[in-house]
From TrEMBL:
It comes from the Bacteria. SUPFAM superfamilies: (Trans)glycosidases. This is GH25 family lysozyme. It comes from Allofournierella massiliensis. Belongs to the glycosyl hydrolase 25 family.
Length: 242
């Protein structure tokens, strides 16, 4: 596949990043951690806003991710209640990824893990974000029904010099020990094979207003709205049952 852009992903563990140095080193996008969870529950990464603003100021395209520990739909909602608030006001050019890789999820089984990932992504979608998911090859093989999630962008990790996962993916995290000017210590390195921005703009997601095709009949837009509203209604019923 042809590489569209090269990038990194960061969290608070990289400390203060010199984003202009990162851009000068040839990196064109960054996927920034919005948050994770600890014993006190979900929390926002303290470097999230600074990293998004710094990367944008240096001319990089930006996406986001959150590390999930959620084992029930109620826990998904609890996580997203925190992370969605942190995303407000930002404009992103890459998806918002659900990072599903923690070993504690394995005991749930493939169907449950897949259902929770999709539940997270559907809520992100209905809240105006362009959703995707992340994991590594072996976790995908054993615990995720990727065919069921084929409509969503996948960001896959595999550090062997090739991707062992055989399905489609848009971003490959190919190293966890990269060295990039502007970042102290190791940083994850990524190749992007897809330009997500036109899709995000067309959908009106990630802080972008939807693009309207003046040649498309108004009834087509109504059908798109109705399909989106039906999906939102289904999610509302699930939330009401929690």
């Amino acid at each position: 596949m042809t590489v569209f852009q090269e990038g990194i992903d960061v969290s608070r563990y990289q400390g203060v990043v010199d984003w202009f140095a990162v851009a000068a080193a040839g990196k064109e996008f960054a996927i920034v951690r919005v948050g994770s969870s600890n014993q006190s529950g979900p929390y926002v990464d303290p470097c999230f806003t600074r990293n998004v603003q710094g990367a944008h100021a240096a001319g990089l395209r930006v996406g986001a991710y959150f590390y999930t520990y959620a084992k029930t739909e109620s826990e998904v909602i609890r996580e997203l209640d925190v992370f969605l608030k942190a995303l407000e006001g930002h404009r992103l050019e890459y998806p918002v990824y659900v990072d599903a890789e923690d070993a504690s999820l394995a005991s749930l089984g493939r169907d449950a893990v897949t259902r929770l990932i999709q539940f997270s992504m559907d809520i992100l979608d209905q809240k105006g974000w362009f959703p995707g998911y992340y994991s590594y090859t072996e976790f995908l093989r054993r615990y995720v029904n990727t065919q069921q999630l084929a409509d969503y962008p996948l960001w896959v990790a595999d550090y062997r010099g090739y991707v062992g996962y055989g399905g489609n993916y848009g971003v490959w995290q190919y190293s966890s020990v990269g060295q990039v000017s502007g970042v102290n210590g190791n940083v994850d390195l990524n190749y992007s094979y897809k330009d997500y921005l036109p899709l995000i703009r067309a959908a009106g997601k990630n802080g972008y207003l939807p693009e309207v095709d003046p040649t498309q009949p108004e009834e087509d837009y109504y059908e798109l709205w109705r399909a989106a509203q039906d999906k939102l209604d289904r999610i509302a019923l699930i939330l009401a049952e929690e």
